[in-house]
Amino acid sequence: MTARHPLDDATTLTPTGERTATGATHPAYANMAGPFGGATAATLLRAVLDDPARIGEPIALTVTFCGPIADGGFEVSWIEKRTGRTVQHWTVDLVQNGKVAATASVVCARRTESWEHRPATMPAAPAAAGVPPLDIGARLAWLQRYAFRFIEGPPQFAGAPGDGPQSARSLCWLSDLPERTLDFLSLAALSDAFIVRIIQVRGKPGPMGTITLTTYFHAGAEALAANGARPILGVADANIFHGGFADQEASLWRDDGVLLATSVQASFYRD
Amino acid sequence: MTARHPLDDATTLTPTGERTATGATHPAYANMAGPFGGATAATLLRAVLDDPARIGEPIALTVTFCGPIADGGFEVSWIEKRTGRTVQHWTVDLVQNGKVAATASVVCARRTESWEHRPATMPAAPAAAGVPPLDIGARLAWLQRYAFRFIEGPPQFAGAPGDGPQSARSLCWLSDLPERTLDFLSLAALSDAFIVRIIQVRGKPGPMGTITLTTYFHAGAEALAANGARPILGVADANIFHGGFADQEASLWRDDGVLLATSVQASFYRD
Q1: Model ipTM?
Q2: Full-model pTM
């Protein structure tokens, strides 16, 4: 018997009524304060994925992180906003101590046979097996949940080398620890696993956090399962750090060049 | 006295109660069926912008287009989900004939004095004055609301030239018609004004439409007002067309190189 993966535990929801459930933060995904945002994103996505009325597969997920989530329990509720022939829209709320701490919109859809074209191609990268994983040391629990094999743009936890801002671009093989066969839950979490750009660019940790995250899933369940537990290639970059807010854009690839997801996020930082 | 701009009319909401209002589609922004999605996005954003409890300025807007909007009236309702010291989260619903036709999440924030860094730079482009506007002909009303000065990647309404897919990249000066001083409403609409990528790539119009649109605003009200009615530079591209769904990513720039917004969207297409 295989032990359950901590991501399955962290995203477990216990039904309490009609499209309401309780969940709890999990120490394996603890962040500086409260949980890793990717675990929260996966939890909200799971509420929809496990709903018997869900059609097709997720194609888009937007999560807003509205306030701090304290370690402990929370309530999740979700609404089927509209279901068409092939596309279905949901919203999800996460409430803790009577306050909304996160919201999500989830779009599910039945993919169809169609004309296909893939103008974006995977960035060149050496095979994951040849790239040593980052030594996370004793840092935050959620960082221990991933093997980060940086080819370019590692986080600068100890301060940026040299003068001026470093490049905001990272190229990195990512995989769950312990190993986990890729699915929508892990992919949703992985889309938030790029360490906040400002740590790399500025090398000056300070108050910071993701405010909103949008991920588009470009591959179906079979294509994810076919990845097995192999590392996926992530590339992340940023356009701007301004007025206390920054952005990030990222894409995630199967090692044979199949685009799995693209993602953007807005985050805050304070001096 | 200056006549009101049609975008102001198209986004007008008439209060009917506590954070509820009615609006109506406007013929000036008519699309193939129902309104141009950018006008809908601007309408949902306006509900929040005009709310007296709103703090700061919008930094992120996600709109989901849940179903067709028929020409005519609709109801809009909005909820203040959470307000922190500097960041505020809202959700908005647009309902027509008892069905949710669109939802939005809006993040507002007070920008602060902070460290600043702008790694992304505006693509090189000839001045707008030297680029002739696209001849829209008698096409859809909403297309008449914009001057599209394509430098690269015009839509292929009459079929793509040559064999195989065309580049998904467009570079284009965009401005409101009639002229309008840039603000968050027009910028929200402009972020959806790139003509759906598949028309350009495939040159084969068919059923298609935006499903969800996320726009990050990277400039404040003053920076937008300083643009006046000058054309802004837009660049759009796509990563994938697969299973009946496609993506788009775009950025919008003031002509002096200030990044105004970045935007992504997912759309459907049928053969």
Answers
A1: 0.97
A2: 0.97
